[in-house]
Design goal:
single chain, rod-shaped, mainly alpha, 55 residues
């Protein structure tokens, strides 16, 4: 992506690789949302009433 510089290497050593941590969290959230969206109830078709399932 880019050439690492000494200051960047020092910042990672001191503070951790924040951009990598953010990418990891974003990927985790994307996977979680993908599972939720895949299992979410579908809205009723036109002209039908929504009836939620009883718990």
């Amino acid at each position: 992506m880019f050439q690492e510089t000494p200051i960047y290497s020092r910042l990672i050593a001191e503070r951790g690789d924040v951009p990598q941590e953010v990418r990891g969290e974003a990927e985790r959230i994307r996977r979680d949302l993908g599972r939720l969206i895949a299992t979410a109830p579908q809205p009723p078709a036109a002209g039908q009433h929504y009836r939620p399932h009883a718990p």
